[in-house]
Amino acid sequence: MSSAHQTSRRRFLQEVAAVGAASLLLPSANRAFGYQSPNERPVFATIGMRNQGWTITSKSFKFADFAALADIDANILGTYVEKVEQGQKKKPDGYADYRKILDRKDIDAVMIATPDHWHTKIAVEAMYAGKDVYCEKPLTLTIDEGKLIEKVVKETGRIFQVGTMQRTECDLRFLQAIALIRDGRIGEVKKVTCGINRIESSPVIPEIPVPEGLDWDTWLGPAAKVPYRALPELRTGYGGGVPLYSNCHYSFRGWYEYSGGKMADWGAHHVDIACWALGATETGPSKVTPVDYKMPVEYKDGYPLVHDQYNVATQFTIQADMPKGVELIITSEGDNGILFEGTEGRFFVNRGKIAGKPIEDLKEKPLPEGAIEAVYGGKVSENHTANFIEGMKARKQPISDVWSHNRMLEICHLSNIAMRVGRPLKWDPVKREIIGDPQANSFLGSEYRKGFEIKMS
User: Which positions fall inside the Gfo/Idh/MocA-like oxidoreductase bacterial type C-terminal domain (predicted)?
Assistant: First the structure.
């Protein structure tokens, strides 16, 4: 955790305490395992090292030892083997083939930070190999993949954390928001709006030779075999050092073949908090309506007709009809964050602020003692990795479990399907299928390319 983040988190906790939630105390670093003894620290491996892979790995040095890394880009793998060695003072092994990690008996858990279309295959095979799993969000590419992961978690008894870190690491504002909802501070919730930003369309992206060191066929994996595409201009900032436009590193979120676009990427954060606040983590919507949206290329029968440009929705406003008559709006317009509106008030929360009259009223009427802990189900973990390891030790699923995540993510996947086929979808949250629309139902799963099927044992 950076010093700036630590300071921000500490300041927020002081603010929460000032309005009556002083019971929210963070545990020491030793809580997850024994930590003081090297023999009690769990042994991890990370699969997929670029960007978020490095982020979750470096945040975990305090809690675990990393014995191995895997990445199919030789340049990336070598770089991060060195960085992990510097971070933990011990060199991890590096593999191009993640299966070599799964074969090792000394590794307790894997962290998965590959592109979305690889998540399910690796996660399922890791659980069958006896590993606990931490997998980045969004967990799946399709709704059927989510059902499969749930089945395997139950069958194997493995501990599985989804990397939706707003549940622990964003200054706790989101937990406070849920506590306010539960305490009736805005009355009966009527509408929740999730602003999740948009992805820009791309220019035409030409076919070019695959960069040296990148195993393109394996990067595609379960997805259909297509040519590598990229433009020479490089991306800067987070995700830098790779082409600004491509169908590979970082830019994979512009393609439905590998991702769910912004809808699944940021939706996995804000829609998750919305569903948690609504008490809708074990159900789903009755209907999803694409109110307004823009696709960057022409579609027919749910499939893009153009293959040299991004194909995910670039603008959208989706309405999901939730239980108890709540209207859930997911939009690419306005501020990034969540607006809760009820019969007695409203407030807004994101990673930088929580604002509105219910927040101001806390000075005179603080939340009840332990209200935020009640949301979390106990003392709040130091970060997502600590919570994962606590679950490993107790053999108890962590705060971001696969069931609540999949229920939330189903809304995002249904929103993408509705835009692809161009019509509202009625959803059966019990059977978890689209009602009366065989074509739309065909998008609940996808066929894996031959040679990259999931090994189910």
Answer: 206-453
